[in-house]
Each structure stands twice: as structure tokens, then as C-alpha cells.
Amino acid sequence: MLQLKISEFQFECGTDEAGRGCLAGPVTAAAVILPNDFSHPWLTDSKQLSAKKRIALKTIIEKEAISFAFTHVMMEEIDQLNILNASILAMHRSIEQLSPSAQFIAVDGNRFKPFGKTPYETVVKGDGKFLHIAAASIIAKTERDAFMAKIDEEYPAYQWKQNKGYPTAAHREAIKKYGPTPYHRKSFRLLPGQLVLPL
């Protein structure tokens, strides 16, 4: 059973990101404040759920959350900042949009930067332990998947609808054949060492 929150604060948000290990597309984070009586039998780490269940849960979370927000940080900023800093920035931008403001932040993973003076705690595999982090993982993943499906229409050869920008064999094959697109992260190794692209 996932726990509701870490602190005694009324407005504790969970935050998580999706797309850190991708070669293309944004890194997307979400922040969610759930009511104290929230529960749902399916709600767990988004990676454990089918796409259909994630979409169904997204609707429930958006309806029942006290507040939620998501943010895409695009390829240019990822290349400037590095992926870890871009992920944290996406979380900060999502937390900023919450109303009421978060009084405490529960962060998935083990790295975060202070958000003003708001107390926070990092939780490794937090999306499998806390409901609000799991909810944030679902919002981040579904919003990012929707973005990747949209840009897939522009560049169908890269199969982003299926691989979501992750380094699958088909994705790497398309990069080798057609080169990188404006949606590729230039600071990432797009191909294994012996197949370096002139960017």
C-alpha cells in the first residue's frame, strides 16, 4: 500500500520526472498535491502500469487533486544545463505553478536543489512508495508520451510514438540513416562510440 505523505503539512506535493534517459524530446516533470483522503487501488509507479491505466488514472488525478502542474524542459535547455539540472528545473517550474503552494516537497530520486525555503525530502523509488509521487509520475509520463506522439507525426521515421525517444535499436537505426532532428538532444551520445555523427 502506498503511503499518503511524509510530513504533517497539509499541502505536501509529490514531484517526479519522465524522459531523463531519452535521446529526443523534452524532460517532463509534474507536481501533485492530493487530498488527505485520496486513495486508488491502481495508483503506483507509472512504469508498472499499462498505457490505458495511466490515461484512466491521469483523468482521476486531475479531477481529484487539490492542485497539479507539469512542465516540459526542451532539448536546448537540456543541452545547456545537463539532464540532471534540466530535470530539477522541470520539477521546480511545476511546483511553482501549484496553488495552494506546496508546504513540503516529496521528490522521487536522490537529487534535488532547494526550492526557496520549502522543506523537502528525496525518496529513492518514491513513485512506488508515495501516492503523490506516483500521481506526479503518471502526469509527467502521460504528458510526455502525448508530446512524443505529436512530434512523431513530423518525423515518423524515428518511431517516437512507440519508443518515446528512448534509445531503441529502431531509433538508433533512424538516426544513423537520417541524422538527428531538431528534437534530438545534441549533448547526448546519439549513437554508440564507433558511429559518431557530425553534429
Task: Walk me through what this model shows.
- The structure is a single chain.
- The chain has about 200 residues and is of the alpha/beta class.
- It has one domain: Nucleotidyltransferase, domain 5, CATH 3.30.420.
- It has six helices and five strands, in the order E-E-H-E-H-H-E-E-H-H-H.
- A hairpin with an 8-residue loop joins strand 1 (about 10-20) and strand 2.
- Helix 1 (about 50-65) packs across helix 4 (about 130-155) and helix 2 crosses helix 3.
- The protein is globular.
- Belongs to the RNase HII family.
- Pfam families: RNase_HII.
- Its EC number is 3.1.26.4.
- Endonuclease that specifically degrades the RNA of RNA-DNA hybrids.
Brief write-up:
This protein has 199 residues and is of the alpha/beta class. The protein has helices at 51-64, 75-81, 83-96, 131-154, 160-163, 169-178, and strands at residues 12-18, 27-33, 67-73, 104-108, 120-123.
The CATH superfamily appears as Ribonuclease H-like superfamily/Ribonuclease H
User: Radius of gyration, Cα only, in angstroms?
Assistant: 17 Å
Class from helix and strand fractions: alpha/beta
Question: So, CATH architecture?
Answer: 2-Layer Sandwich
- Determine and state the CATH class: Alpha Beta
Proportion of residues in helical segments: 25-40%
If you average the pLDDT, what whole number results? 94
Q: What is the CATH topology classification name?
A: Nucleotidyltransferase, domain 5
Give the H and E element order: EEHEHHEEHHH
Q: Could you say how many structural domains there are in total?
A: 1
Report the sheet-strand fraction: 15-25%
Unreliable segments of 5+ consecutive residues: none
Largest sheet: 5 strands, mixed
Basic shape: globular
In order across it, which strands form the biggest sheet?
3-2-1-4-5
End-to-end separation: 48 Å
What's the tally of helices?
Answer: 6
- Would you count the extended β strands for me? 5
Subcellular location: Cytoplasm
EC number: 3.1.26.4
Function: Endonuclease that specifically degrades the RNA of RNA-DNA hybrids.
Family: Belongs to the RNase HII family.
